[in-house]
Design a protein that fits this description.
Elements: H1 10-30, E1 38-48, H2 59-62, E2 65-75, E3 87-93, E4 101-107, E5 128-129, E6 134-136, E7 141-148, H3 159-168, E8 172-178, E9 185-195, H4 198-203, E10 216-218, H5 221-237
Protein name: Phosphodiesterase
Length: about 250
Amino acid sequence: MSAPTARPSAFAKRAGDAVCRASAFLTRLRRARLFHPAGRSFAGEVTIWGTSGPPTGVAFLDEPGRYPATIRLSKGTSTPGSWPDVLGLAVRVHTDGPRPVDLLVSSSGARPVLRAVALPRRRFAGTYSTIVPLRADRGRRLWLAALADPDSIDLGRSLAEVAAATRTEEPRLVLATASAVGPWRPFGQVSIGTQLSARQDAALAFDPIGNLPTGLRAVGAMAWLRGQSYRGSRRARGVEAQSGGSIGVTV
């Protein structure tokens, strides 16, 4: 028999509600997403090959599969054109389960120390990391990442160039996982297809905490803060954690 889920304390609930309200206020103030307001969304596909070497214990990472997906590439602070910014990649994987899988990663370094740091850059092809580690059921910490595919068309240096790249080819990024100090181990790829409309992009909402693959948990203060902030931003936009996403088009 599994242990009962611990309920948050009254203080934690009040603190969470306060962060949620503040995030909702800021979202209404800027009239856009609180995080990564400028972006482009696409229909696409995620192919899972499975991890090489020892399994992670997370079925989504270890077991081969092929899923329709919705992909969003974005700029964290909406700098103009090709100016440097913390770039974001959000992938909604439409699985057969009761909820989708949302993978959100930010531009970072590839080396162990730098994979935990969000780094501004110009080009959309490069390393994106979860920044904070995720905890698997076995207790081990894992980072997830999307890495540049050397055989793929370049995504360019602006959102306009990203969109242009998808009109001629199907850009790809490699999905990978790693421990705190180990090398990246590829387990799949993201293929980026047809661009979605501005209305579809505006309706799309992600949950980087509640929509993780089964067997992975976001833990720690940063994960808590992120979860409450996203909740407030979604509330102000009038969307739910499962809102948006096209499963009608794959590449």
